[in-house]
């Protein structure tokens, strides 16, 4: 009976795929988890309790039908499992790798709450889709009927690509505009290969291109092409640019050489390590941690990407400063554990107030006087120790300064991973009437993504602020559905 394959969580323990030893994974940018074998995937999928109210599905932004594809996997019906998983998720192999499952589906698993250890949902999802690619179950995009309407999508990140896939399958003519030389957005240039190897992203790019999506790369809107020109060329437009403006740090020495933005640092590393590109800033050492004492400032997933990248580049030491404690950091706890295994030191309850640079500096590094480097080059981070006080407006305990606890943390390279903000798109693009919120994100209708301009939609981080890839996929799919309805209404009006 099929039911005998499930409910094994009492007798079968949770077992993640093998993880490469830290001393080996520090040496390259390959993914750190091995693939499940078929029997192991079925065994782990069979731990699902098939509960009546699946909290895993509820807490998945895409509301993936997780219990059903776990059951199908346990029964050895892998092709059906893949078909169910891809009905709600445009890129399941990507989500299986980079979603923070510990905060979403797995973190809300019923058997996890009962103390039996969560079902390894992400690892099974990755296994199903990787198998689908290997077996040829991932079919080319072949619309049943071509449509004459066209849509322009600005941004080739997860939101834009998810929308492109959905629109193209409906027969709409789709052109994607992106500033970079490769599609994928942060999946290509922001997320390191040890979390998401780039051939995984490039396979989806090739599928979209072969399915009829046109890509105009190295194309910056407002420079190489005007927004009004894009609107004039298409029946509808989707803005899915993401947010790329880095939050900054002020204070003494903040302009010193050797203090860099996380996005620049990760982009350079991904270009070199994953594509073999020549990057002058990497070769000069500006964006290369090799032989350096590195301090990363921030506590989110981008900070985790930076510290683990610095380890692989050969940094002599890597430290992460975060103003709250471990329990209150926004990044994935799984990523923190991986970083610690690889030799990263976390300095909790610590906040920077400035930077030392040039010709020696006042104070000491951990109590030892240090001679500074040449003028203008960062030598250290001036650190203020913190404690957690009363909760702030979000309910999290607010950090407070501890008087007299300042010290200097030595650093040859400082990476600012403080999050991202939206660029001022109406100003950059010279467009009037595109309303934005007080945070600078595009004001768009909930679920549809419709903006203040007729026929213009928006999706992903440019609407919700810096968020997760899985949310961008959800937004892109929702916006595509709304655009299809808009295009159909336009066709109906034209026919009348």
TrEMBL record:
Q: Which residues form the FAD/NAD(P)-binding domain?
A: 151-476
Q: Where is the Dihydroprymidine dehydrogenase domain?
A: 25-136
Q: Which residues form a coiled coil?
A: none
Single GO term (MF)? metal ion binding
Superkingdom of this entry's organism?
A: Bacteria
Q: Which UniProt keywords apply?
A: 4Fe-4S, Iron, Iron-sulfur, Metal-binding, Oxidoreductase
Known PANTHER family for this protein? GLUTAMATE SYNTHASE [NADPH] SMALL CHAIN, GLUTAMATE SYNTHASE [NADPH] SMALL CHAIN-RELATED
Protein name in UniProt: NAD(P)-dependent oxidoreductase
Q: Which organism is it from?
A: Histidinibacterium lentulum
């Amino acid at each position: 009976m099929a039911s005998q394959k499930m409910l094994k969580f009492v007798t079968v323990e949770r077992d993640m795929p093998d993880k490469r030893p830290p001393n080996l994974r520090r040496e390259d940018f390959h993914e750190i988890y091995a693939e499940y074998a078929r029997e192991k995937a079925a065994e782990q999928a069979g731990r699902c309790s098939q509960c009546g109210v699946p909290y895993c599905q509820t807490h998945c932004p895409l509301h993936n039908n997780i219990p059903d594809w776990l059951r199908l996997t346990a029964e050895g019906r892998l092709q059906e499992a893949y078909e169910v998983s891809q009905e709600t998720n445009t890129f399941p192999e990507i989500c299986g790798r980079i979603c923070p499952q510990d905060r979403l589906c797995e973190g809300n698993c019923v058997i996890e709450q009962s103390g039996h250890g969560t079902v390894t949902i992400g690892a099974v999802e990755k296994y199903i889709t990787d198998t689908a690619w290997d077996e040829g179950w991932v079919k080319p995009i072949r619309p049943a009927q071509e449509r004459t309407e066209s849509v322009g999508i600005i941004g080739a990140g997860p939101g834009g690509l998810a929308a492109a896939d959905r629109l193209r399958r409906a027969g709409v003519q789709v052109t994607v505009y992106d500033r970079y030389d490769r599609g994928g957005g942060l999946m290509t240039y922001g997320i390191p290969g040890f979390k998401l190897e780039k051939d995984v992203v490039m396979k989806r790019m090739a599928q979209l291109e072969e399915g009829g999506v046109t890509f105009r790369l190295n194309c910056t809107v407002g420079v190489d092409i005007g927004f009004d020109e894009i609107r004039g060329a298409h029946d509808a437009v989707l803005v899915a640019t993401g947010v790329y403006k880095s939050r900054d740090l002020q204070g003494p020495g903040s302009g010193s050489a050797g203090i860099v933005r996380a996005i620049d640092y990760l982009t350079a590393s991904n270009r070199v390590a994953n594509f073999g590109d020549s990057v002058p800033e990497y070769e000069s050492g500006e964006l290369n941690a090799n032989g350096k004492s590195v301090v990363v400032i921030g506590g989110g997933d981008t900070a985790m990407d930076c510290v683990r990248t610095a380890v692989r580049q050969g940094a002599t030491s890597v430290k992460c400063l975060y103003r709250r404690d471990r329990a209150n950091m926004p990044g994935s706890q799984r990523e923190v554990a991986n970083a610690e295994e690889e030799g990263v030191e976390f300095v909790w309850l610590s906040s920077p107030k400035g930077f030392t640079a040039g010709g020696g500096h006042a104070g000491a590094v951990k109590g030892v006087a240090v001679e500074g480097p040449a003028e203008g080059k960062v030598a250290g981070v001036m650190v203020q120790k913190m404690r957690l006080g009363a909760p702030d407006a979000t309910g999290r305990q607010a950090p407070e300064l501890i008087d007299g606890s300042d010290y200097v943390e030595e650093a040859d390279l400082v990476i600012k991973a403080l999050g991202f903000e939206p660029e001022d798109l109406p100003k950059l693009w010279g467009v009037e009437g595109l309303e934005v919120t007080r945070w600078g994100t595009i004001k768009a209708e909930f679920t549809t993504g419709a903006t203040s301009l007729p026929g213009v939609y928006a999706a992903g981080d440019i609407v919700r602020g810096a968020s997760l890839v899985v949310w961008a996929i959800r937004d892109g799919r929702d916006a595509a559905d709304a655009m299809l309805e808009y295009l159909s209404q336009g066709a109906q009006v034209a026919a009348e």
